[in-house]
Structure formats: structure tokens, C-alpha cells
Design goal:
- By secondary structure, the protein is an alpha/beta fold.
- The chain is built from 17 helices and 12 strands.
- The strands form 2 sheets. Strands 1-7-6-5-4-2-3 form a 7-stranded mixed beta sheet, sandwiched between helices.
- Helix 5 links the parallel strand 2 and strand 3 (about 125-130).
- Helix 1 runs antiparallel to helix 3 (about 60-75) and helix 4 (about 85-95) crosses helix 11 (about 260-270).
- The model has no long low-confidence stretch (mean pLDDT about 95).
Length: about 425
């Protein structure tokens, strides 16, 4: 597409450009395999000498449409869509790290990611050091090791909605000589642009706002193309011959696209994390309304947070759009609006939180967040229950904490539901 289009236009138009007489809406390529006219044509694809689709475990036209669109929205050089957000995080780490390597991560991250990094990857020999995102740059740098390969954080943390200090983390990553990756699921590209603030990779659980309707599981890794693997001695796998591809050297063959090529043709090939064509098609279609939905989510989120903050039965509210929030100044610096996710604690602790949630009529209790319907969750007993009490406390998960995702319903109806539920405690 022509460069310079605004994000609202890219959300609708990017990813698919039909030719004369072709369907206006991208068709769904529900096929595992693709036909070629000669053995030579197919051999070139297997040797990475030509581009194209030959097996959906590696690439598919419908998945490619989503990858192009998400890359355009974030401003990257390319993307790889995966079966889930967890798969996207796994793809990133397994492409960069071998057994014996080390990563540094903010501890204010999604509970599933924390468990993946802190437990599952440890079983593979990849170690992690967690750091409070409010730690100084010197504290972050003190955690680096000779084998450190990645610095990871969330732009707006799940569920604690803490706003990342991009400049601090980006500076630390550059001094360590490692890529800086940011999970941008909650703000989306509509509200935050991590590549503008020093990130090298952006990840999304596309199951959340990107899909926006809680119907399509997925994740994605987007590469800015800014980290120079050819100039780093930390990543020999990018600069030495890959015997599984006849001695191909990724940085020489693909330049800035070395990460994307290795991630797709090596890690995706071997671990099978590919997004399904149907989920890619649904997500790509739903992205067309993402800018509109994020406006409504942000409007409803701010109004609901203001209502809760003024209610006598609410002990505290954590939402970066509130002017008295400790995150507000940083949020205004890095976000164009504040989204629909917040946390709050009713007076009366965990028991009061449970009574409140059980009294809701419009908002649903679900293991999800960031879709069109207003929903609530108790992280301590669900998404973060695998963590110890100490790990929960370090991640900001209090016993009474309720995570709220304001949907796109009429705000008066949402507030009315919360008001009647608060009367029960």
C-alpha cells in the first residue's frame, strides 16, 4: 500500500489488494497444501530461494493477509502469526535463545507469560531474571549476564495496567546489546507505538482487542528490523551456516529480515505454532473496526473508572487515565488514550470482591479480557493462581483485586450494572 496512510485506513485496507475481477474481501484459504507445476518450483521454496506457500504449517495466504496488516499497523517490516499469544512469546524466545541462555523480563506481565518464562523455559535450560518495571536502569543492567539475549516487558501490563517506561528499558537493552521486545496487547497500535519508543519487536495476543469479539485465538510477533544481528556476536545462529538449509546464513540471505526468516523456517517449522486460516481471516476482518472500538473502549473505561473512584464502597481504583493515578503522567507520554482495562478493590477484601462479581447481571465473569463485552475476572484465583503468594504480590495481584474490561456497550448501562452490584457488599 501507499506509505503514509493513517492507522484507520490501514486497519481497513492493508493486507489484501484484489486484482481485476477478484473478490473484494480476502477469501479464506482453507487448505493445508498448495499445488506447483514442477518439482523444481517446489524445491526452490524448500531451499528458501523463492517465496510462496507450500504448507500451511509455515505460511498460508489468509494468515499472510493478517501478518501484513498487523505489521502495517505497528510499523514493522514483517510479522509471523501464531496459534496463541503464548505461542508468539515462545516463538520469540526460542528463535533468540538456546539452552543455557538468559532473558530479563519485567515482573508486571500476564500470569501465563510469567509461568512460561519462569517455569517452562527453565525446564528447557533458558533462565529468566524478573525485575520490577519501576526499577532503575542500573538495577536492570545489574541483572545482565554474558548469555543474556532479550529484554521483555508489556506496554500496559496485564492485569496491573502499569505503563512501561519505554525510554529506560530501551536504553538498558541497547547498553546490553540485546533486542527489546514489548507485548502491546492492551493498548494496541491504536493507542501506543512501541517501535517509536525503542522496541525491536512487538507482540500481541490477537485473541484480545485485535480480534475484539472473543472468537479467534491467536498471537503475533512483529519485527521492526532494527536489531542488527549481523553486528552482534551474541547470536551465532543468525551468522553461521544452517546445515538444515544447506549452509544458508540468515543475515546474509535475508538482511533485516533474518529474524523473521529463521523464526518461520526453523522454529515454526519444527514446533508447529501456526495460526489457523479461519482464525487469521476472522482477526483480519475484525481489525477493520479496531480504531473505532478502541475509541469506545477508552471512553467507557475512563467513565467507569471515574465512577468507581468516587464510590464509597470502593477502596481503590487503578486506571492510568485517572488524573490522580501514579501512572497518569507516563500514560500521557506514551499512550494516545487509556483503553478499557482497569483494576479495583472493593472495601471488604476478597469476600466483598466475590459478592460483587456474583451480583453482576450485564458484565460477565470470564477468563478473557479486551473484547466487545464488558467482563470481570479475579486474577488471584484464576490467571495468576499458579504463582505463589509472594510472586502474586510482586506482580501486584492483591487478594481483592478485580480486573475489569469495559466493553463497547452503552456506558450508562455498564455503570448501572456496577452500581447495583456494589449495593450487595
Amino acid at each position: 500500500m501507499k506509505k503514509g496512510y493513517k492507522i484507520e485506513t490501514l486497519a481497513v485496507q492493508a493486507g489484501y489488494s484484489p486484482k481485476n475481477g477478484q473478490p473484494r474481501v480476502a477469501p479464506i484459504a482453507m487448505s493445508t497444501t498448495f499445488k506447483y507445476d514442477s518439482a523444481e518450483d517446489l524445491a526452490k521454496l524448500f531451499d528458501l530461494q523463492a517465496s510462496g506457500h507450500f504448507y500451511t504449517r509455515l505460511s498460508n495466504p489468509s494468515v499472510e493477509c493478517l501478518e501484513i496488516k498487523m505489521s502495517a499497523l505497528e510499523g514493522g517490516i514483517g510479522a509471523i502469526a501464531c496459534s496463541s499469544g503464548q505461542a508468539a512469546s515462545s516463538l520469540l524466545v526460542l528463535t533468540l535463545c538456546n539452552s543455557g541462555d538468559h532473558i530479563i523480563s519485567s515482573n508486571a506481565i500476564y500470569g501465563g507469560t510469567s509461568n512460561l518464562f519462569g517455569h517452562s523455559f527453565k525446564k528447557l535450560g533458558i533462565d529468566v531474571s524478573f525485575v520490577n518495571p519501576d526499577a532503575s536502569e542500573e538495577e536492570i543492567l545489574s541483572l545482565r549476564r554474558e548469555n543474556t539475549k532479550l529484554l521483555f516487558a508489556e506496554s500496559l501490563s496485564n492485569p496491573s495496567v502499569r505503563v512501561l517506561d519505554f525510554e529506560k528499558f530501551s536504553s538498558a537493552a541497547k547498553k546490553m546489546g540485546v533486542p527489546f521486545a514489548v507485548d502491546n496487547t492492551f493498548p494496541t497500535a491504536c493507542l501506543c507505538r512501541p517501535f517509536d519508543f525503542g522496541a525491536d519487536f512487538v507482540l500481541h495476543s490477537t485473541s484480545k482487542y485485535s480480534d475484539g469479539h472473543a472468537c479467534a485465538l491467536g498471537g503475533i510477533v512483529i519485527d521492526k528490523g532494527s536489531f542488527d544481528f549481523s553486528a552482534s556476536d551474541k547470536f551465532p545462529a543468525f551468522n553461521e551456516p544452517d546445515e538444515s538449509y544447506h549452509g544458508l546464513i540468515y543475515t546474509k540471505a535475508f538482511g533485516k529480515g533474518a529474524f523473521l526468516a529463521k523464526a518461520r523456517t526453523h522454529v515454526m517449522r519444527d514446533f508447529g505454532m501456526m495460526m489457523s486460516p479461519m482464525n487469521a481471516w476472522l482477526t483480519s476482518m475484525n481489525l477493520e473496526t479496531l480504531p473505532l472500538r478502541m475509541e469506545r473502549h477508552s471512553f467507557n473505561g475512563l467513565r467507569l473508572a471515574e465512577f468507581l473512584a468516587s464510590h464509597p464502597k470502593v477502596d481503590w481504583v487503578n486506571y492510568p487515565g485517572l488524573k490522580d493515578s501514579p501512572e497518569h503522567a507516563r500514560a500521557k507520554k506514551y499512550l494516545s488514550a487509556f483503553g478499557g482495562v482497569m483494576t479495583f478493590g472493593p472495601k471488604g477484601g476478597r469476600a466483598a470482591a466475590e459478592r460483587f462479581m456474583n451480583s453482576l447481571k450485564l458484565a460477565a465473569i470470564v477468563t478473557h479480557v479486551a473484547d466487545a463485552r464488558t467482563c470481570v475476572l479475579h486474577p488471584a484465583s484464576t490467571t495468576h493462581r499458579q504463582l505463589s503468594d509472594k510472586e502474586q504480590a510482586e506482580s501486584g495481584i492483591l487478594p481483592e483485586l478485580i480486573r475489569v474490561s469495559a466493553g463497547i456497550e452503552n456506558i450508562d448501562d455498564i455503570i448501572g450494572d456496577f452500581e447495583q452490584a456494589l449495593e450487595s457488599i
